[in-house]
Specification:
The complex is a heterotrimer. Chain B contains five helices and eleven strands. By secondary structure, chain B is of the alpha/beta class. The chains are: A alpha+beta, B alpha/beta, C alpha+beta.
Chain lengths: 750, 229, 84
């Protein structure tokens, strides 16, 4: 068994610092490689280091900070460290979930970029033995007027639908935002959740010296070579020409792979399994071996190829989709192969687990790469990048005309209409109609209400899901903004009647080598940590996407948070829509809203000043009260305030798809209600509708927790929205504006 | 009624159909793998929704050549009951067990939505638990549901009562906006001349539980099950 | 035996609604190609057929089109054979 230097392959170039730099490694990183392995790396090894040590794969700028996130609770079955996190949701079930970004590929080729983003996150879920049962996504595009936005919107939505629908996983919720800040860097964050019996979860930890390693799924081609490096670099003028690096997905094969992997898992012959995602075969093999404290040796010439002539370098770096790597129990590989054959998928033994802690790749018996197993992942650089808060020119101050009173019909009425017509507020039906939201027969509440609600077959329990972000707030204050995002997502889940139990995050930022960006990131992680602790919802998985900037212009800090909630009885779930004329309408809130970072401020070009402060204890108490109210069947509807503020939320609550209703409310303040009351955002505010006989009981739930509770009016059969004297509108007219905002803008394009 | 639900590579609503029939409605149902050559004693065969063979070439074009389809065709020729939903409808048309074809939605987009359907013929084994003119609420989720057939064939089908379901609004009226995909004559479901084969684009299996949005789908399954020996 | 290339063109039948064709036509018009009077979007299938002569390949290709490659309810087909 040779442990000498690897041999060169025909076509290999001479390895040098310059070549390393061309691969995206720094001179220091190259020297560290030489130090770790005690010699010059081979060409193949250089390629492998360049992807494994890229930001996307190694998390070298973020790992140090992510370690500070709370990741434990009584309900955590699997924390960070495997392919996804898992939370015990009761009745023997574990929910496996994660959110991931596919930002850079989606900007270059929107359909396939988004499609393969969905494919990738699905594999992270079913590699743990869980059947994927729900998807969500968070999308950020440039402004509607920007020349590329329509093309990117159509491509991304088409890709998510094209892949998700064909693979049979319902897309149950999501968010879409349009803002000029994303003109040159769109964001596509894809979430997936699967269910698995707690004791049947699979791992990606290699065990058993001599166990065979199987390659299963699609054949390998040249897709995505250096895709991980693309995600670790900003865009410049040449990015358009990088098209070949984008992977092409095949959802039909993925569906077969899901069925085959789950069926193969039931044989008991799978020791470990991992999907081939970023850095494909390289990352899956080295990580599985490393987790198990063992080694792995593969014969690359046994890998099924889609085209002739691929070199070992290309085979190792390929990001061809729909492939998994399996460590099987020795002697039982035939059983697994039979399952994959039934589903018409490749299943080839390409190597074995060893005991020498080496990662050794052979090409027709010659060794072309031979590295210590830890070198690629565990020994990857770990940076503590400098973080410096940007100098503020002055403290943000509210516009002078902000606190003008909203009196008379003109201003409040027009503002409400303008907001309902704003793409960030308006109905996203144009988007979610393109997604199958009902396959698998678990969707109790799909897109269009706040949180999605799914039932668990065979159990009374249900789960609620929401994904949220708020880049405008994070731009003003990266810490408080991040806290606010967690609060909003958690509040949505509680409004549905579910107790928040776990969080996954996708942290999207600019170039971490710039101290201001690193500062934004660290403050965001701080905010996420504090909020996660306050709600007792650990962060069990996540993803970091850096380098979201073009020619030095970064996106605003955009932590995207997805929250999982559990309800004991799914039939007690609550939606956001008013249901019965005569019901009392009440407001509960944890503080005063603010115009800062609001859609109102954006639409009317107003500087809203500072973000409203957030008291996490009150937020947690609000959540408790909402869940308690739902569990006792006391809450008829609950809708939290988001983009557009109270007036918009009030209108949305009237848009009951079964039959629209109306509302007659007064915000008090003796007719001096102003723009902040009507359209402010920020601290959690929830609109409740309650049966008149239950008002006292509900009031007690909130008052006993020191949460402001006020009945402000009632639901009416007549579909008119009346807010004090300032707003008196026909609800179907408002709904028409709300539903047409995006379609009319799209129709006007060609 | 003994049901056989066919599973092709890429079928998606096979699981939902099994859940609806066996778990919710207590029927006896089993999966028929596409490579099997007998129907396992099924009295009604259901071809479910999904993307069999990834919808490659044309939707349903490859599935119709699966081994199981020979048995399904013979079963239908002998008068056996066959129902195809969504992709199942597409496969039945490709297999010439039903007239016409399904093409890309007029809007070129996939649409997932609840729609209203009017029962045009309540005298079939698939609709006898309904009344003529009943309006049902069922979900659709498809990208290729635009039904086409040659004009004279359509005329004959209408005369014979082979048009079973039509897209309408909540009041039961045929309008432009009530037709989600541009189907000719707003046709959502048809039967063959013998009325033993039925294809529809909507998904009755997704409308059997109130908590998930409605139970009108039960009427179709009850119609079929009511004919059990 | 030769390996002959057969190029199959499948297009929507006249009278069948072709929303893709219409969408492409409208996009071309808005890009400034106002002289486009009509667009049909179809499929192009390349076959490598083993046959003794082009006539045999043509025969095989016709059967393949009728059996699988085109749906006569909604599509027309024509093809070109190498060597003809």
């Amino acid at each position: 068994m040779s442990t000498g230097a690897p041999v060169a392959v025909e076509g290999d170039r001479k390895v040098s610092v310059e070549e390393a730099r061309a691969h995206g490694l720094s001179a220091d990183e190259y020297r560290k490689i030489e130090q770790i392995i005690g010699r010059t790396p081979s060409w193949t090894e250089l390629g492998v280091f360049s992807v494994m040590w890229s930001e996307h794969c190694s998390y070298k700028s973020s790992r140090r900070h992510l370690k500070t996130l709370p990741s434990t609770s009584e309900l955590v079955v699997q924390g960070p460290g495997e392919n996804a996190g898992a939370i015990d949701v009761g009745d023997g079930w574990a929910a496996v979930f994660k959110i991931e970004s596919h930002n850079h590929p989606s900007f270059v080729e929107p359909y396939q970029g988004a499609a393969t983003g969905v494919g990738g996150i699905l594999r992270d879920i079913f590699t743990m033995g869980a059947r994927p049962v729900a998807s969500m996504n968070s999308l950020k595009f440039g402004s509607f007027e920007h020349r590329r936005t329509r093309y990117l919107l159509g491509g991304v939505v088409g890709g998510i639908g094209g892949y998700g629908n064909c693979v049979g996983v319902p897309t149950v919720a999501g968010e879409v935002m349009f803002d000029a800040a994303y003109n040159e860097n769109i964001l596509v964050n894809a979430f997936c959740l699967g269910l698995v019996r707690k004791d049947e979860m699979m791992s990606a930890r290699a065990r058993g010296v001599g166990n065979p390693v199987l390659y299963v799924g699609s054949a390998t081609g040249r897709d995505g070579i250096h895709g991980a490096s693309m995600a670790s670099a900003e865009f410049d003028k040449e990015s358009e020409a990088k098209r070949p690096a984008v992977q092409v997905g095949d959802p039909f094969t993925e569906k077969l792979l899901i069925e085959a992997c789950l069926e193969a898992g039931r044989t008991g012959a799978i020791v470990a399994i991992q999907d081939m995602g970023a850095a494909g075969l390289t990352s899956s093999s080295s990580e599985m071996a490393d987790r198990g404290g063992l080694g792995m040796e593969l014969d690359l010439n046994l890998v099924p190829l889609r085209e002739a002539g691929l070199t070992p370098y290309e085979i190792l770096l390929s990001e061809s989709q729909e492939r998994m790597l399996i460590v099987a129990e020795r002697g039982r590989e035939g059983e697994l192969q039979a399952v994959f054959e039934k589903w018409d998928l490749h299943a080839v033994v390409i190597g074995r687990v060893t005991d020498d802690r080496r990662w050794r790749m052979r090409w027709h018996r010659e060794v072309v790469a031979d590295l210590p197993v830890g070198a690629l992942a565990a020994d990857a650089p770990l940076y503590d990048r400098p973080a410096v808060a940007p100098k503020l020119v002055r403290d943000p101050e509210p516009s002078p005309n902000l606190s003008r009173k909203v009196t008379g019909e003109a201003s409040a009425k027009n503002a409400l209409r303008a907001l309902l017509d704003s793409p960030n507020v308006a109905s996203k039906k144009w988007v979610f109609r393109q997604y199958d939201s009902i396959v698998q027969s678990n969707t109790v509440e799909g897109p269009g209400s706040d949180a999605a609600v799914l039932r668990i077959k065979g159990s009374r329990r249900g789960i609620a899901l929401k994904v949220d972000s708020n880049p405008r707030a994070c731009a003003l204050d990266p810490y408080l903004g991040a806290v606010g995002v967690v609060c909003e997502a958690v509040c949505n889940v509680a409004c549905a009647g579910a107790r928040p139990v776990g969080i996954t995050n996708c942290l999207n930022y600019g170039n971490p080598e710039r101290p201001e960006v690193m500062w934004q990131f660290i403050r965001g992680v701080d905010g996420l940590r504090d909020a996660s602790l306050a709600f007792g919802a650990p962060v069990v998985s996540g993803n970091v996407s850096f380098y979201n900037e073009t020619e030095g212009r970064a996106i605003p800090p955009t932590p995207t948070i997805a929250v999982l909630g559990v309800m004991l009885d799914v039939s007690q779930h609550v939606t956001q829509f008013f249901k019965n004329p005569g019901d009392a309408i009440a407001i509960v809130r944890t503080g005063r809203p603010s115009i800062a970072a609001s859609e109102y401020a954006a639409v009317f070009g107003i500087d809203g000043g500072k973000l409203a402060p957030i008291e996490l204890e009150h937020e947690a108490a609000l959540v408790e009260a909402l869940v308690a109210g739902a569990e006792r069947g006391l809450i008829r509807s609950a809708h939290d305030i988001a983009e557009g503020g109270l007036a918009v939320a009030m209108a949305e609550a009237c848009f009951n798809p079964r039959a629209i209703l109306g509302a007659e409310v007064d915000l008090g303040r003796a007719g001096n209600a102003d723009a902040v009351d009507f359209f402010g955002e920020g601290a959690s505010t929830v609109i409740l509708s309650i049966a008149p006989g239950d008002v006292t009981k509900v009031e007690e739930l909130f008052a006993s927790r020191e949460i402001e509770f006020a009945v402000i009016g009632k639901v009416t059969r007549e579909a008119r929205l009346q807010i004090g004297k300032a707003i008196d509108e026909d609800v179907s007219e408002l709904m028409r504006i709300y539903e047409n905002a995006i379609p009319r803008r799209l129709a006007g394009s060609d | 009624m003994k049901w056989g639900v066919v599973r092709f590579p890429g079928s998606l609503d096979d699981g939902d159909s099994m859940h609806a029939l066996a778990d919710v409605m207590g029927e006896s149902a089993r999966i028929l793998w596409h490579k099997e050559t007998t129907l396992g004693g099924a009295e009604c065969v259901l071809l479910p929704g999904g993307f069999s063979y990834g919808d490659y070439l044309r939707t349903g074009a490859i599935a119709r050549f699966s081994p199981i389809m020979k048995s399904v065709a013979k079963f239908a020729a002998d008068g056996g009951l066959v129902i195809g939903t969504c992709n199942g409808f597409q496969i039945l048309c490709e297999a010439h067990l039903l007239p016409g074809a399904l093409t890309r939605n007029r809007s070129l987009s996939f649409i997932c939505e609840r729609v209203w359907l009017r029962v045009e013929n309540a005298k079939t084994p698939f609709t006898r638990a309904t009344k003529q003119g009943d309006v049902l609420r069922l979900p659709i989720k498809h990208g290729e549901g635009l039904y086409v057939a040659p004009e004279d064939e359509l005329r004959q089908m209408e005369e014979r009562g082979q048009v079973i379901l039509r897209y309408v609004d909540s009041q039961g009226r045929e309008t432009e906006s009530a037709n989600p995909n541009g189907s000719m004559r707003a046709i959502a479901g048809v039967a063959n001349e013998r009325f033993n084969v039925f294809g529809l684009m909507p998904h009755p299996e997704h409308a059997v539980e109130a908590m998930l949005g409605g139970t009108d789908g039960r009427k179709i399954f009850e119609s079929i099950a009511g004919g059990a020996r | 035996m030769f390996e002959l290339q057969v190029r199959v063109f499948v297009t929507p039948r006249k009278g069948i609604l072709d929303p893709q064709g219409r969408a492409v036509e409208s996009s071309l018009h808005s890009l400034g190609f106002k002289n486009v009077a009509g667009v049909k979007v179809g499929k192009y299938i390349l076959l490598e057929v083993e046959a003794r002569n082009p006539a045999e390949a043509r025969d095989e290709a016709k059967k393949m089109c009728e059996a699988l490659l085109a749906n006569p309810v909604i599509e027309d087909f024509r093809f070109e054979v190498d060597g003809e």
